Amino acid sequence: MTRKGILFIISGPSGVGKGTIKDAVLKKNTDIKLSISATTREPRSGETNGREYYFVDEDQFRQLIDNDELLEWANVYDNMYGTPRQFVEKNLNRGQDVMLEIDIQGAFQIKARKPDGVFIFIAPPNIEELSVRLEERGKDTPESIELRLAACKWEMEQMKHYDYVVLNHELETAVDTVCSIITAERCKVKNLIWSVI
Ligand code: 5GP
Q1: How many CB atoms lie within 10 A of CB 12?
Q2: Which residue lies with its CA nearest to atom 11 of ligand 1?
Q3: Are 13 and 156 in contact (CB under 8 A)?
């Protein structure tokens, strides 16, 4: 019995912990391929080109768009981010599951192109906790935190367009919930191609 590759999209407001959840879920599901995005943002300390992101300049990013090499792309807080198309298509066609961790604008573009994808919205338990997390992670200026919190209201309203919502109240529970979603999706009959019927 073989099956089609499933595209899992982890998305949600900035600072909600998508990246941490994605890393933990992939550790438990080593057979899922992570798509590495291209970005124009500067590498942070400890980040390596080709591991966290493909770090490119604006001209290179424009070229990726012009050559239709991105499955989706978006401007997220003044930097461009995009999902390389070929990696995703190649793996899905091989029956390999793929995971994207992207913002909400990007998730909408993927939904238009890959409606069979599994869209998982990671939500903060409440806005106060999100505010504390953004401060604690120390990546953002006070102005940028304000901007992110203001965007969060609109972002939370977009939850209705997703297949699943996972509250990131406690990391371990959120990770287990995403793993359960993956298991359930893999068992769906529509995701199976029977070699013998
Ligand atoms: P960071 O710069 O902190 O790694 O990521 C900033 C935001 O960009 C996060 O919300 C992350 O999910 C989003 N992001 C990362 N890669 C992509 C991508 O390829 N496409 C889109 N649309 N968003 C992305």
Answers
A1: 28
A2: 102
A3: yes
What's the gap in Å between 81 CA and the centre of ligand 1? 6
pTM for the structure as a whole: 0.92
Ligand 1 centroid – CA 86 distance (Å): 18
Separation between Cα atoms, residue 197 and residue 99, nearest integer Å: 30
Percent of the residues in the chain that have a pLDDT greater than 90, as a whole number: 75
Mean pLDDT, all residues of the chain: 93
23 touches 114 (CB < 8 A): no
User: Residue 127 has which token pair?
Assistant: 């806005």
CA–CA distance, 10 with 104 (Å, rounded to integer)? 9
Would you tell me which CATH number, out of the four given (3.40.50.300, 3.40.710.10, 1.50.10.20, 3.40.50.720), belongs to the domain 2-193?
Answer: 3.40.50.300
